[in-house]
Automatic annotation (TrEMBL):
Protein name: Zinc-ribbon containing domain-containing protein
Protein species of origin: Paenibacillus montanisoli
Keyword Transferase: no
UniProt keywords, alphabetically: Cell membrane, Membrane, Transmembrane, Transmembrane helix
Residues that span the membrane, as ranges: 12-36, 42-65
Chain intervals with Acidic residues compositional bias: 109-119
Record carries keyword Transmembrane helix: yes
Region entry Disordered, spans: 107-128
Pfam families from the UniProt entry: DUF2614
């Protein structure tokens, strides 16, 4: 993906990019009719179809992001205090971009007590 953003916002960004790309292609295709007259109709038809496919892809991406959003874990960001949604084991806050995790083994800023608990869990788990 692009970088420092939450996963849901990344999906929404891809949906927006496909929407803009599809609309741009359809506008470019319509410009073919204006500048090339009769010969531009084929150009316009091709670009309209490709633009529609891009628009349908954006609808699919937005639908997928919406479905992921309904099953996401909602938590309070420790940095900004706002409600944010988290997908997977690690994600970023939707507002302040702070790294979030529910897995203590992946957390970087731990107290001594938390580190001891992690070591104890590692010792009790069978080695594979």
């Amino acid at each position: 993906m692009f970088g420092k953003s939450s996963k849901i916002n990344e999906f929404r960004l891809w949906g927006l990019l496909f929407t803009l790309f599809g609309m741009g292609l359809m506008i470019l295709g319509t410009a073919g009719i204006v500048f090339w007259g009769q010969a531009g109709k084929v150009f316009a038809a091709i670009f309209m179809v490709i633009g529609m496919i891009a628009m349908l892809a954006s609808v699919g991406i937005y639908f997928w992001a919406g479905m992921l959003s309904t099953s996401a874990i909602i938590l309070n960001c420790p940095e900004c205090g706002r409600h944010t949604k988290m997908l997977g084991k690690t994600d970023r806050c939707m507002y302040c971009k702070t790294k979030l995790t529910l897995d203590p083994a992946q957390a970087t800023d731990l107290d001594d007590e938390d580190k001891e608990e992690i070591e104890e869990v590692k010792r009790t788990q069978p080695q594979s």
